[in-house]
Amino acid sequence: MTESTVPHIEILLVEDNEPDVLLTLEAFGEASVPNRLHVARDGVEALRFLRREGEHAHAPRPDVILMDINMPRKNGLEVLQEIKADPILGSIPVVMLTTSQSDEDVRRSYERHASGYVVKPVGFENFLNAMRAFENFWMTFVRFPPHQDRP
After folding, report:
1. What Å distances lie between residue 19 and 26, 71, 129, 142, CA to CA?
2. How far apart are alpha carbons 135 and 130 in whole angstroms?
3. Are the C-beta atoms of residues 131 and 27 closer than 8 Å to each other?
4. 15-44: string of b/e by CB count within 10 Å (b at 16+)?
5. pLDDT digits (tens, 9 = 90+) for 14-60
6. What is the distance in angstroms between the CA of the first residue and the CA of the last residue of the chain?
7. Rounded distance, CA 127 to CA 124, Å?
8. Cβ(106)–Cβ(117) below 8 Å
9. Dihedral of the CA atoms 139, 31, 68, 88 (nearest 10)?
10. Sheet containing 35-40: which strands, arranged edge to edge?
11. Number of other residues whose CB lies within 10 A of the CB of residue 140
């Protein structure tokens, strides 16, 4: 397989904290697996991206979503619940990536069918290491369904 034919992974990052967005972009920019990282800055924009509304009319379907919990307009738990209730979007794995260490947030995330819950590590190197571990698991070992267009 040539580099141009190697399948890439579509990742949607739902994050309102700009430093965390930049760190994630840097971490995935160094990834060994080809990927395209898309960013939604709050829950409302994330749903518009996923539903291909407005400026996101040609957005790809993400293979995996990384989502913060505490965001303006619509929080990550609300978005997670809407994603998992949608028969078209419900199969997309959603990993909560948040600063919250609250047992209640963990419980509520898994009740809404999150695929994982990761507490953001403090510090640049720790954050990069966590993103590399994410890459290693999700982009190396996990098999995603073939890319399909939404009906």
Report:
1. 11, 14, 16, 28
2. 9
3. yes
4. bbeeebbebbeebbeebeeebebbbbbbbe
5. 999 998 888 888 887 776 667 888 999 999 999 999 999 999 999 99
6. 30
7. 5
8. yes
9. -40
10. 35-40, 9-14, 64-67, 94-98, 116-119
11. 11
> Structure pTM?
0.87
Residues 110-140 pLDDT 10s: 999 999 999 888 888 888 888 778 877 877 7
Structure tokens at 34: 């080809």
Return the HEC string of 54-101: HHHCCCCCCCEEEECCCCCCCCHHHHHHHHHHCCCCCCCCEEEEECCC
Burial of residue 56 (CB within 10 Å: 0-12, 13-18, 19+) is: middle
Q: What are 19's strand-pairing partners? A: none
Cα distance between residue 68 and residue 13, in whole Å: 8
12 burial type by CB count under 10 A (0-12 exposed, 13-18 middle, 19+ buried)? buried
